[in-house]
Task: structure prediction
Amino acid sequence: MVSVQRSTIIDAPINAVWDILRDFNGHDRWHPAVRRSALDGGKRTDQVSAIRNFELVEGQRLREQLLSMSDEEYSFRYAIVDSEIPLLNYVAEVSLKPVTDGNRTFWSWKSQFDTPKGQEAELAELVAEGVYTAGFEAVRGRLGDPKSSSRSFMTSAYETSKSSAPELPGKAIQIDRYGGPEELHIVNIIAKAPCPKEVRLRQTAIGVNYIDVYCRSGYFDLLKPPAVPGMEGVGVVEAIGAEVRHLSVGQRVGYACPPVGAYASVRTMPAELVIPIPENIDDRTAAAGLLKGMTAEFLLHRVHQVKKGDFVLVYAPAGGVGRILCQWANHLGAVVIGATSNEEKARIARSSGVHHVILPGARSLEGQVMEITRGHGADVIYDAVGKDSFDHSVAALATCGHLVSFGQASGDIGMRDISSLASKSATISRPNFGHYTDTPEKLAAITTRLFDAILRHIISIEVDQQYPLSQAAEAHRALEARETTGSTVLIPDDIQKGI
Ligand code: NDP
Result:
């Protein structure tokens, strides 16, 4: 029988360390080797006999059962009941003790197990370094222990035992020249080891935004081919640079910002752009809602502060940004008018808080707005359609109304004569996501309000379309053809297939 024991001192109080460890189903939030953890039905995470199902980052699966747990002793024991890695009769114990000279914690992790003949040393090393030592470092990083010197050495437990993975291979969607959806094609990529201020992610979900269409077509110059599009992703921190303080290996994180490059299964990027994702918001929801939700936040709270009783007109109210805007404006007490293209989208708009729907018909958009508002007009108009809608929007405004032109799904609005605004003393804004999210402080303020709105069910982020990453072209085609509602996400193919 093989015996393995490792111990360490964590520079944090015992309760802080125990809070992380006692969650028998929580390893996927902190241990770099564990991609997913799920409890067999009906049991609590601290219930003796509960069985956790691990899917490791390298794809293997194993099941472990909780044998005992003591909050008084700060310890628990568990056993492997099923494993694709040949660890036989494996029983382990985790225990903590307070260190008296300061607010620190002694942590011991030990086990005994059998292995097939000849694999004793290899598997002992795997458990000792890949599982225990890697776990110590991940918890250290999570608790901000300054002694976390090797925070970036881990990739996954099982990779660690094979190589230090200076380069991490993956897949991405690239364009070699500007053009239509057919330019999006899959390529093999390498995510380099992070520099001191960078982070490397294994992505689990990627948001598709209309801005990706503008980048792909060359309308926006945020992307210079050959390059990987995409501005929004969620995943797990796989490695961090030496100067990164706010993230730790194994943490769930996301981002919504330039530089482009999100359409990838692995990515190395500036760490300051990456934020932790709250536990109660799953990866798909975060990837679908970060960029669109932050946009709705600054449009409703910063570009124009919507008030109770305002008449608010939203174009594409069943779309990604539109649906969030409508729910939130309704919550703020506005009378929400949604202008969309068909009955099915009208139904979705109504379920998203729209009080009055405008559909194409015999009467002009401005005629319908004036009728709904009894001649008052819209106090604020959120117009992301652009070319086809601009003149109608100006005509639909109330006196002193505010036209927020924030997109151009139908094409560029071109040159305009602002004297047309004088007849209503109207205001026009052309806000840009980048300017509302370009510092960690702005990002923190905007995401705090967004996450709060999601968690309080003020808004719900609906993922109505999901594609494997390799089918990004189809996702773009559908978005441009006005076939989509809510949000669209891409899932890296190995995750989509459940590999
Ligand atoms: P959507 O899900 O809203 O998709 C676009 C929708 O626009 C369509 O479903 C359609 O809805 C409507 N639309 C109207 N005319 C056309 C047309 N000619 N071609 C295609 N679609 C048309 O996309 P997103 O939520 O990703 O983005 C919405 C808008 O918000 C985009 O214009 C985007 O550029 C803008 N945006 C701007 C930001 C900024 O910082 N300024 C930040 C983020 C997004 P319907 O059928 O109901 O008319």
Summary: The two ends are 32 Å apart (CA to CA). Residues 2-161 form a domain with the Alpha-D-Glucose-1,6-Bisphosphate; Chain A, domain 4 fold (CATH 3.30.530.20).
